[in-house]
Design goal:
By secondary structure, the protein is of the alpha+beta class. The chain has one domain. Strands 1-2 form a two-stranded parallel sheet.
């Protein structure tokens, strides 16, 4: 039989807002479920707002290029 889980809060989305809420509630001892359908951190952290991700990716491609 599957184990039942009981949560005081279910947070949908693990972007900056969802992570902040989930971690804050967990720090207060509340049982929290965090649900994310894509990469944790949201678009801003992983692909959108931080241009360093693009620069790091391009640098890695350049390093892997033969010659």
């Amino acid at each position: 039989m599957a184990k039942e889980n009981h949560y005081s809060t279910i947070v949908l989305g693990a972007g900056s807002g969802g992570l902040t809420v989930a971690l804050g509630l967990a720090a207060l001892g509340k049982p929290v479920a965090l649900i994310e359908r894509q990469a944790v951190g949201g678009d801003c952290t992983n692909v959108g707002c931080i241009p360093s991700k693009t620069l790091i990716h391009l640098a890695a491609e350049e390093c892997d290029r033969p010659g």
